[in-house]
Amino acid sequence: MKYLAMIAALMFASSAFAVDCVDCHEAINVEEHAEMEANIETCNDCHSFADAHELDADLHTPDLTITECADCHGVD
């Protein structure tokens, strides 16, 4: 059972890290956006994020911060 949980955690981590935003987009100034307290809703309001990206609502809540995005997706 312990190994199954470890494998599931590794699968999740590898799927999240597989999407690196800077592969398609210019680097985002995470520090500037963190000062503005940007979250996913802010991205959508300013940049129409939802028009081009479909997010898994179970993992990506509207209050997810830009710092948390950068931790998984390499946006800085």
TrEMBL record:
Residues in the signal sequence: 1-18
UniProt cross-references to SUPFAM superfamilies, sorted A to Z: Multiheme cytochromes
UniProt entry keywords in alphabetical sequence: Electron transport, Heme, Iron, Metal-binding, Signal, Transport
Highest taxon, organism lineage: Bacteria
A Pfam family hit: Cytochrom_CIII
Keyword DNA damage: no
Residue span(s) of domain Class III cytochrome C: 16-73
Stored InterPro entries: Cyt_c_III_dom (IPR020942), Multihaem_cyt_sf (IPR036280)
Protein name: Class III cytochrome C domain-containing protein
UniProt source species: Shewanella electrodiphila
